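Appendix C reproduces, verbatim, an entry submitted by the partner laboratory led by Prof. M.T., so that reviewers can inspect both the input and the predicted structure.
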Amino acid sequence: METLAAHVPPPDLSRRRFVQSAAGAGAALYLAPYVSSAYAAPGDVDLLGKSTVEIARLIASRDVSAVEVVKACYARIDAVNPQLNAVVFTCRERALAEAAEADAMLAEGKSLGPLHGVPFTVKDSFDTAGVVTTGGTLGRKTYVPGKDATVVARARAAGAILLGKSNTPEFTLGGGGKGTLNLVYGVTKNPYNLDYQPSGSSGGAGAIVAAGGAYFDIGSDYGGSIRGPAFANGIAGIKPTLGRLPRTGHIVGYGGPFDSFQETGPMARRVEDIALLMAIMNGPDDWDATMAPVPLGDPAKVELKNLRVAWYDTNGMMDPTKEIQKLVKQSVGLFKKLGCKIKEDKPPKMQELADIRGRFNGADGREHIRRMLKLHGTTQASPGLRTDGDVVSSADFTRLCEEMDAIKSEQLAWFEQYDLIVCPASQRAPIRLDHPLLPPEQRSKSSYTSQYNTTGWPAGVVRAGTSKDDPGLPLGIQLVAQPWCDDVVVAAMAHIEKQTGGWVPPALIG
């Protein structure tokens, strides 16, 4: 699975990258109050169980070498990937060369930034210079980009070392209810139970991070594609505010009427890593036209006790399991103990918004999907990729846009009375690989994540418990904040993690 491309060094640190790297270093410092034994799995002495922040510190202090850490990650990948099928392509020779270079730099007192020497994987929907990037589509089976996607370039500029690519369904949209299923690499399995899905579309990312093969991954989220895998694999992940992190270099990029649904974001075992990575990847890149230069707040400065918290355990369309509803109430209790103002409430017209988005998604007869297939030279689409839809007239399409925006405005006005929403991340525990797919008319109703792609609000998921209905499988909780208040989401995630323990190593690697 090795690329034949020559060693491609990380991009040079421009002034903007230097500022962002400095901000990332600051993120590690301002999260100091959150760093405690709660972040480490019980009895953990394994390098691979450490957070990104912790391993970066160990490498920077030269208590462990980057080469040693990269080799440890590949050893873990070699051990678990035959069962998981989470990492679909590696760049081992280049990664080891970069690790040796990182160690040599440290010996000379030099560093690229807060991720210096830290190994990571990237969802296969992001371009990676010199490394095969398929996007799960057959037309790009051997495609090697010449340039990194912006968020990948920023991670590498801060010193991170790319190990390889994680599995995703075709165009991130074609899993067909089977998580990451695609015709290039097949399906990924859940590290907590190989009969279950890791969810999608960042399912390979969630699985390999949970299994200890990478310290973090970078995912994308069109309807829950970061938060679903974070839930199913018991890790942390965030869908930032629309306009926070660039999508340049992602196979489903920006532009067109469906632009506002797609965001990119980090996935890691620990919440402190999410804050660090957000600080590094944040900000415009002078290409993605939707980005905004809004400063990223400091999660450590969020006064949790002052938050006004709304919560709901059902969206009113399809009730979650009793187990999920109980988890929501328990999580709300953690904020109540802090003295937060708590009220059971939810955004208005959630069903109406879901119905409109459902019609909107196929309004062009999914011609946008067929254009992507043609653009990438794919003649055989994955079975789960929908290429059909009911074409609506231009007048009806305009009406759908207006109605969707009107509800989004009404929901935004509703949110003025709250700072945080605590709600389900999923209708139920992770599902089996052979779980029947819900009919199209029920899918939007069962989703607890796509609501916040439609609004563009920041939303994160962190592990908050373990399923008793499906023993051993992780359960997570979703936390949502007002636009641009990503720091509130991260701070709330950190509080949940500190109280519940967060990530637990799967038995597969125990």
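Residues 154 and 281 are 6 Å apart (CA to CA). Additional entries are available on request from the coordinating office.
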